[in-house]
Design goal:
The structure is a homodimer of 349-residue chains. The first copy, chain A, contains 14 helices and 12 strands. Chain A has 3 domains: 44 residues, lambda repressor-like DNA-binding domains (434 Repressor (Amino-terminal Domain), Orthogonal Bundle); 128 residues, Response regulator (Rossmann fold), CATH 3.40.50.2300; 145 residues, Response regulator (Rossmann fold). A 6-stranded parallel sheet of chain A has the order 2-1-3-4-5-11, with helices on both faces. In chain A, strands 7-6-8-9-10-12 form a 6-stranded mixed sheet, with helices on both faces. With 349 residues, the first copy, chain A, is an alpha/beta fold. The interface between A and B is large, with 54 and 51 residues. The structure holds a DNA duplex (21 and 21 nucleotides).
DNA sequence: CACCACGGGACAGAATCCTAG
DNA sequence: CCTAGGATTCTGTCCCGTGGT
């Protein structure tokens, strides 16, 4: 009704200047924090801004060289809860600094990774956070090498890059240690394949601990899977219908866990009586199940916040942090999905 | 190592032009899809672009060109799975059209809603999608009234605005009808408070069906809660420790459901023997529980895709759609969390 | 003379710096 | 010396004009 075709009715700084009867430069000065503007004029300008509902154009500010006040965040899959929580923490930390964030999904597809990085460049982001998992292909490496703005990675392995990582190795060692103490000897592991840093850490830790305990047999009980429900189901089927099935399984959370549970339910396996289960990654699913699952947990908010801290340290010029690695702790939350198998091994008091 | 202080070494269209030995206008023409450029020149330009790794600045394009190729998406809480899935669908549909998206969280806080809308304006978004829930306060209304770009809402009630909504009323009617058919008479409902559109629809449907069935008593078994785990726990406590507790409860999914389940487990209540439970919103939690929960489900991707369709119809000039309301279906997924109470009422074969 | 490909310049909005009052 | 005006800058797009056929 108001106007048939609204021709980009943007209110610009000039409209404000005209309304307030001053020059555009003066309005700009008021906006940036009135250093050298007479109070009366500043007040007139502010009144005009409020009345016209003027909102400065980020495009223009960015173009002029203020920086875009934006950071990019590239994630394999935001609908995955594990990543979603990290991204959420990053988002909050970024917003707290008055910056905006654009989040991009790659779905683990190289081509989309490349395009995501290019999108970040198109936006003139002031910094980039790369979240999660997989090893970089040459094309991605090449792009990351000449970004022109700071890069921080979360749970990734790129060399010479500021990194915040979760101590997945320690988490897995705690889980296995706990299961061993409970008398389990045949222990399975379901984790993504080795192109993911986290998974490699877990597998290395698993191997070390198994060798140390003389339980090398367990190395045959590792299942590397895609991150989806059916893969979890298949892995569970594969492990638990074997001749000598494990008495305990440590599995990635989220959809993979959901698949494992589907198999467990279908077979009428009762937790923890027939099988002990430890989840990697803690959330409302692990907490809400009956029995609630013992899980390897880490602080998503700390992870995101640390990454943003590191990124802004670099944006704000402290180059010294380049290449620094921050490690976030990982610990076991004991719940009720693990059975004590061998009283003599576990009983101490 | 490469350069002590990198002074925004952005490659611009002019560098490309120089390298290719052409004018900037020609480069621009090649970029926009070679209309009237000689093939040989176009090839030279493309080579220069590739070699210099030129990526056009979105800020500049946005400023001079038609639009920012960006749409905004405002959500109460992305870490909530229900919203996360909608946002994900929106994200994909937007990307499929070559647009970028910026997602903003409000946490249901008015001030953050206002700032989110202003952020969208700063970005010069070409359209805005408002997701979820609560009624608008006057300040928000005022801003939305004079946006200057198309607005589509999902599951919101603003008048005269293109809307895509889920038929929560139908979903609830199906759930209650199913429970009634299974012989349940005392049925509880746990849902957010009435300032959310979805919740009001549910409560209205609940009231209608209860009156129609002469089960007005159930109106006292409605619990309006905050959307978090403790609120779910408290509501369950309140309902199930009463003198005449319901035999069935329909509850919002996600964190609220997790709280309800926590109470259920603590009390040793067995599903569905001691209590029948229907979840609103279906995801891997409802599917993975033992027993898997009967749930009210709707198609998140269709919801997001419809909203984006409607938005682009408006962006691309078809104003006729303004104010149109699209409804997404909502249906009950039968699983194993509902017990048949009364064989005479339920048995038919 | 008309037509087409390309060059060149103005312009979008905000910030900064120089100058004038 | 202090304040405010105004020109200039950033990058990509659009339009007009020119030169060649």
């Amino acid at each position: 009704m108001s106007s048939p075709t609204r021709p980009r009715a943007r209110v610009t700084i000039r409209h404000v200047a005209e309304k307030a009867g001053v020059a555009v430069g003066t309005v700009s000065r008021v906006l940036k924090g009135a250093d050298t503007v007479a109070p009366a004029i500043a007040e007139r300008v502010r009144a005009a801004i409020a009345e016209l509902r003027y909102v400065p154009s980020l495009a223009a500010q960015s173009l002029r060289g203020q920086g875009s006040r934006t950071i990019g965040c590239i994630v394999p899959d935001v609908s995955n809860r594990l990543y979603a929580q990290v991204v959420d923490a990053v988002k909050d930390a970024v917003r707290a600094r008055g910056y905006s964030i654009i989040v991009m999904n790659t779905g683990h597809v190289v081509d989309r990774e490349v395009r995501s990085i290019e999108t970040a460049m198109r936006w003139d982001v002031e910094g980039l956070i790369l979240v999660g998992g997989f090893e970089d292909r040459p094309e991605v490496e090449a792009l990351l090498g000449r970004l022109g703005f700071p890069l921080v990675q979360i749970d990734r392995a790129r060399a010479d890059t500021t990194t915040v990582r979760v101590d997945h190795g320690k988490g897995l060692r705690e889980a296995i240690g706990y299961l061993l103490a409970a008398g389990h000897r045949r222990i399975g592991l379901v984790t993504p394949d080795g192109s993911s840093l986290q998974s490699r850490e877990r597998m290395r830790a698993f191997e070390e601990i198994c060798r140390a305990e003389g339980a090398e047999d367990n190395l045959a009980l590792v299942r590397c899977v895609e991150v989806n429900e059916n893969a979890g189901y298949d892995a569970a089927y594969d492990l638990l219908t074997a001749e000598a099935p494990p008495t305990a399984v440590v599995t990635l959370g989220g959809d993979v866990l959901a698949g494992v549970l589907r198999f467990v339910r279908m077979r009428g396996i009762e937790l923890p009586r027939d099988l002990s289960l430890v989840a990697i990654g803690d959330n409302e699913l692990t907490r809400s199940l009956d029995p609630p699952l013992t899980a390897v947990s880490w602080n998503f908010r700390a992870l995101g916040a640390s990454a943003v801290d590191a990124l802004f340290a670099r944006i704000l010029g402290r180059e010294s942090d380049e290449g620094r690695i921050t490690t976030i702790d990982c610990r076991l939350i004991e719940r009720e999905s693990v059975r004590r198998l061998d009283p003599s091994a576990a009983g101490d008091g």
